[in-house]
Amino acid sequence: MFAVRDRVTWRAVWRLAAFVILFVASIGFVAGGVIRGAGVGSVAFMVLGVAGFLLFGAGLATSLGGLLARRPVLELDVSGVRRPARWPLPRRSGRVLPWDEVAAITALRRGVPGTRRGEQDYVVFLPTPELAEMARTSDRPVLVALTMRDVPATAAAVPWCFAVGPGWDAKLPKIVKEARRRRRVPVIDRRTR
Question: What is the pLDDT of residues 68-102, one digit of tens each?
């Protein structure tokens, strides 16, 4: 099995630090409300503190669990393409696209070069021949629809669209190579045109 994992990034570390700070601040709100007594302001502080404690505590647990669980974002094995469920969901709730249903693999690029956000590469496992033909012949604006959830014409491709992140431990060429090792499917590289 070939598994692609997302490395721990500074963004994830800062998100964890932010949740810790907000969680501690929520505890401070509750403590401040308890110390002040039974006034309206104290009750408001305690209610806000408890709400923050619950929300930021859940965010902290999810953020920390995601860092420690290190679940893959993409798996390729003999049965097909697997999109594992994110932590804290059980692994078995992930999705599988059998190799028999993969009509093609397309690589595309979304974004504007030279801007602050730059460009983002995507790999899409296309489940129908119609989507494969669209990926082969369409202009770039139509290709971007493969990465968007709210376009009905490309809804079948959305669960199998992966944004290749900068922290992934395998880059796009390696992912395509590993996929082709498991099944010879056409590869449509539309990153440049």
Answer: 888 898 999 989 999 998 888 887 888 999 999 99
Q: What pLDDT shows up at residue 112?
A: 67
* Residue with token string 């590993």: 178
Tokens 């030279």 — which residue? 114
Q: In what side-by-side order are the strands of the sheet with 104-111?
A: 161-163, 119-126, 104-111, 187-190
Domain residue spans of the chain: 2-69, 74-190
Can you read off the two tokens belonging to residue 38? 């039974």
SS3 assignment, position 148? coil
Do residues 37 and 125 make contact, with C-beta atoms less than 8 angstroms apart?
no
Looking at the chain, list the stretches that DSSP marks H as alpha helix, in order from N- to C-terminal side.
Answer: 10-36, 40-69, 129-137, 140-144, 172-182
Two tokens, residue 5: 């994992």
